[in-house]
Amino acid sequence: MPRLALYALAVCVLAVVAAVVSFAQGSWPLGIVWVLLVGVSSNMAWYYVRRGKAEQAERSESAPAA
Description:
This protein has two helices and no strands. By secondary structure, it is mainly α.
């Protein structure tokens, strides 16, 4: 898994925890902001995973056959 995907996944997990804490403390507006950040970071993680797989497939296709 590409490094940027791991970073985005870590941000996603931390944002989920922050959203749960915010909602539990009764801070709804801040919790909604954290949920939005979860959405953005999860999309970034998927993007970097797919991009890494595409680059790996491209490299294996361009490699000379032995």
